[in-house]
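WARN retry 2 of 3 for item q-0093 after timeout on previous attempt; input resubmitted unchanged.
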Amino acid sequence: MIWQHTLKTALRGLKTHKSRSLLTILGIVIGITSIILIMSLGRGAQDLILSQIQGMGSLTIAILPGREAKSPTDVAQTLSDSLKEKDLRLLENKANVPDVKEIIPVVFGAETATYQSEIYHLTIFGSGASMINVFDLHPSEGESFSEEDVRARAEVVVIGSKVKEKLFGTDVAIGQKIRLKGRNFRVVAVLPQQGQSSFVNFDEVAIVPYTTAQQYLFGIKYYNRLIAQATSEKYLNQAAAEIKETLRQSHNITDPDKDDFNVQTQADIASRMKSVTTVLTLFLTAVAAISLMVGGVGIMNIMLVSVTERTREIGLRKALGATNKNIMYQFLTEAVTLTVIGGAVGILLGSVFSLIASILIIKFGGLAWSFTFPWSAAILGIGVSAVVGLVFGIYPARQASMKSPMEALRYE
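OK item q-0093 returned
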C-alpha cells in the first residue's frame, strides 16, 4: 500500500507540471529513439550483407591479390597484381587442388558503353564462361559466351537488364553491337532483372571474356580475383588449404605471414563482416547513449527546481507524519517514472522511424532490406532509462528528504 500511495503521489506531482515533465523527458526520448534506430538499421545492414555473401554460394572461395589487411599499415599491400596466369594454370591442375571443382578468373573496372546516341556508365566484368553458372546468371535472352570465345578473345558481351533498357529501350538487343573503349562488342545475351546480389548489381554490368577484357579494355596481365568452387561443403576448408599451398609454391613463399594473396571462404567473409557491422553498431549506439546522460542531468536539474518549488508541500507532508524515507521515495519515484515514460516513448518512435527508413531504403535503394525490431535494445532501453532516473534522481530526492519541516512550512 505504501508503494501504491507513493506512485500515485508521484504521478500527481508530474501531472501538475505537464509541460515541464514533457520537456524533461525529451533528452531520454531522443537518446532511446537514436539507440533503437541505430540498432535496427545496423541489424538490417548486417542481414543484408550476410545474405549477399551467402548469395555467392557456400562452396565459393575467393582468392584476392595482396596481403590480408590486419592493420592500417597493411592497406597498401592489398593493392597488388600478385595473381598471374601461371597461378591460374596451377590451380586448374587437379593434381594440385583435388578438392577444387573449378576456378574462375575475374577482372573488373568501370567503363562507358554507347549504342548509337545512347550512353551508359557501367561496370565491366571479365570472367570465364562458367561464371554464369557459379553466380546463377542464366540469360533471359540469347546464350552466354563459351570457353571457345574466351580462348579466342572474342568481342562478345552479356549485358544486364538495366543496361539493355538504357541502351536499347524496347528494341531487340541480341546481335546488336555496343561500343566499349573504342571497340565494338556483339551482344550475345541479356540477363534477367535480379537486382543486388553478392555485392554486385548484375542489372548494371556487362560481362565479357576475361581474356578480351585484359587485352582490349584494361590492358593488364593479372587478375583482380580468382573465384574457386569446392567439390563439396565437407571439403571446403581443405580446398582453401590446397589453394594456399599451391600459391605459396608458385610465389616461392615459405612463411605464411608473408603471403601476397588472401584466401577467403564465405564463412570467413560472413564472420568478418558480422564483426565489423556489430562493432560499428555498438560504437554508434555508444555515441547515441551520450544523449541519455544529458537527459539524466536535465532530469536532475528539473527535480532540484521541483524540490525548491515544493518546499512548503514537503514541510506539510512531514508535519502530517511523512518520514524522510517517504519523501525521498516520492521524488525518486517521480524521477524514475519520468525516465521510464521517456524510454517507452523513445522505443515507440525509434521503431516507427526504423520502419519508415526500411521502407524508403527498399523503395529508393532497390535493396533487399528487412525491418528488424531490436528486442534486446528495447529491453536495454527501458532498463537504462530506469537506471538513469534512479542515479540522477537520488541527489534531488535526498535534498528533499533532508529539509526541516519547520523551515519548510515558513518557506515563502
